[in-house]
Amino acid sequence: MKKIILLFLFISIKGISQEITGKWKVTSYEDEIVYYDKSKDSLLYKDPSRKDEAESFRKMYEILILPITYEFRENNDFEMVLPNIIQIKGKYEVIDNEKYILLTDENGKTDTLPFSKNKEALYIKTELENGFVRVGLERLF
To answer: Considering the entire predicted model, what is its pTM?
Structure first.
């Protein structure tokens, strides 16, 4: 009986890892100030006094955030790429009952990031010293 439970648990965890396997592109961005969804072309400032920054944010988003891609491979390798600027490679693991992704880069630096997934998107959240960043990703393949 114990072996059956362990096998089921292994298959369940492996299933979630396979659900995030693939290449993903950024489609939305949220932090404590703004929410922007490129697919719906919606920009919401949580602090109305900062609405005058909308156009400069949109330009910055399209240059520095929108081009980012994440790739999660079946062998648990991951790669995050911002073309012509940065490329981060390492290993990933889905942990804690499918609530977190543990990323370990080539230099051994680790990040444990909360994530959620629905039919259309994968959402990854990063806690910062003074807030958070949450990106929505759409599968490319």
So the answer is: 0.78
Residue 45: exposure state from Cβ atoms within 10 A (0-12, 13-18, ≥19): middle
Query: Please, what is the Cα angle at 48 between 125 and 118, to 5 degrees?
Result: 30
Residue that is written with structure tokens 């995030």 in the block? 20
Q: Which long-range contacts (CB under 8 A, 24 or more apart) does 121-125 make?
A: 121/27, 121/28, 122/20, 122/24, 124/70
State the greatest distance between any 2 C-alpha atoms of the chain, in Å, as a whole number: 62
φ, ψ at 36 (rounded to 5°): -130, 130
User: What fold, for 2-139?
Assistant: Lipocalin (2.40.128)
Span 69-84, pLDDT tens digits: 999 999 999 999 999 9
